[in-house]
Amino acid sequence: MNNQIESAYPAYYRQKAVKRLLFFWRTAWDFMKLSEIKGIGPKTEALMNKLGIFDTADLIRYYPCSYEEYASPKKAAELTAGTRNSFRGTITGNVSSRRAGRYHITTTVVSDSTGSVRLTWFNAPYIAGILKKGSQFIFRGNVRIKNGVLCMDHPEIHTPEKYDALMNTLIPVYGLTKGLSRNTIAKSVQYALQSDPQAANEYLPETLIRLNGLRDETAAIRAIHFPKSADDFKEARRRLAFDEFFKFILAMRMLKEADGDRKNDFPMHAVWDTEELIESLPYKLTRSQLSVWHEAEKDLSSEHPMSRLVQGDVGSGKTIIAFLCMLMTCANGYQSVLLAPTEVLAKQHFEKIEKLRAENKIDVLNPVLLTGSMKASEKNAVRDLIRSGSANCIIGTHALLMQSVEYQNLALVITDEQHRFGVRQRNALRERGTVPHMMVMSATPIPRTLGMIYYGDLDISVIDELPAKRLPIKSAVVDESWMDKACEFIEKQAEEGRQVYVICPMIESSEDFDTYNVTDEAERLTKRFPNLTVGTLHGRMKPDEKNAVMEDFLAGNVDILVSTTVVEVGVDVPNASVMLILGAERFGLAQLHQLRGRVGRGEYQSYCIFMSGMNSKDTLERLNVLKESSDGFVIAEKDFLLRGPGDLLGVRQSGDAMFSIADVTRDGEILKLAGETAAALAKDDPALILPEHELLGKEMRRYFEANERKIVL
Fold first, then answer.
1. pLDDT at 486
2. Domain boundary residue among 609, 629, 649?
3. What angle do CA 33, 37, 40 make, to 5 degrees?
4. Which residues form the domain of 129?
5. How many helices (H) and strands (E) does the chain have?
6. Region 458-473: what's the mean pLDDT?
7. How far is it, in rounded angstroms, from Cα 98 to Cα 123?
8. Of 178, 427, 553, 713, which is the most exposed, with the fewest CB atoms less than 10 Å away?
């Protein structure tokens, strides 16, 4: 340990110094407001706010979703359906404009010496004024074949001179909202980088940058938005992925330092109630479920509070482990809390534990549900039960950790990976005088060695078996030509009373992203299936709106739910037997596997259709991994091997993700490096008081403030 720290800060004062940094911060940096950026008025500012962008720091860290690469144009004979290509041709057909319902359609034919391509634009009548018969352009878009004819829908139009300037460059593509363009974000980022030096201020000491072979942060942020080459992008991504891992791991280590070597405030002993429940379940726990339960049981009885991660694949049975821990806690005379990410899931957990209690006559459990949508009188009644200790098994959302909820003896808090404790909630529990046992449940398939770094000093348990009676999900990988068959299959399943998920990469259409979106697909499916009820779900909806949609789906009032990936953290809908994932090539394999786990939760045979918008050999090879394996760990490893540097960040429209660039399943080496660096720094200067760590201290205060609800305990 650094002698300067050792002499100045004995253990007690070290902990106190870290607490001051964590819990008594003031805003570390003074960033420019969006309204101060040239070209951003109130309307544009409001649109950016919808994307989670509120100042220049947010703006420059709103990284591209992917990049457009402008390769040499191909001849017509070289174009392949299911790919995105450029084509140089002369307009040989008439330029036709017509109306078809709400759409204005412009079409023409472009040819070269090897063949012709039919081009179509929707709701772009100005195109007719640009295209003149006999003129030559370069068109770039997705290629498909319709009735034996090569087609491009809504392609970009470039003059040869303009295209030559773009060739061999990487142009950023951002997740957008309607009314906001790619160019607006790109220009705003450029202005922010030039005008606000604090927005991308290098905070790491020069020695750490040099030892780890890292790029300067300011240069890395500039290059991630505007890379000069693929190598330029790779160097930038490595630095920014390192930053995300490093700050996350350092934050957890600082939290641990603030706690010190805490003793167990809630000592427990094993009880017969848990053994009797295990014996009376209508199914047998798997070997790994029993192993994890015994590890948790040992934790609850030990001298130190539990800090355990329970990791298990989708549908592996983590929830019953949580229920057993809650039962042991209540049987020992204490209170326990289970936090769910949504009200609908909280209600489902409550109904399940109520059913277990009633069927097995478990008198020591008195479960209650507390959610935001309950009436004020109902909330007050539940709070009274919690305050008195009468309610000992409490289920709800993060509102359960608010100051208005007073506990008599809260001994156990269980949460899941998608709903981590924030720093303020953690501090609120500490201020009550005791720190309860903590359990985090995760379905992210991270190898144990990386998990030990990623989750800091949490003990890790793995459930690596699926329940014996669960039917395997039948999976298919298809291209867009299979759409009609997929719709016929959906209709047949709906006629049999089943329900369907349809997953899209985007919420709404974007001029910069030619892929499936929730808004358009819901409209298309509503027209195709007039006798079925189609619902929509996405991350920009208000919590009460999302809850209402999921409750309707769970109740069977919605036949087809068109959604973004928000259903990853969803309720069990036993009646849902089909998932159709559109634009499957836009997602990572591990994410697709977790999405697939939303079906197959009931007694019916379930199916998952991965539909790719591109049928290139590499794309189909990667997606076929999902047909060959249902093991999340195997899939994550394959994903890491098959996704090259060109498969960048995925489509992210939500600010809820912990990382924007880093990926624990593919950036193992960067994670190890960041973990080792954070561990060494936390050991030598946990309160970041040394002069060379002044900027790092300011950055960590900003990080805690910006991510207070995402940092795991």
1. 93
2. 629
3. 100
4. 71-167
5. 26, 22
6. 77
7. 10
8. 178
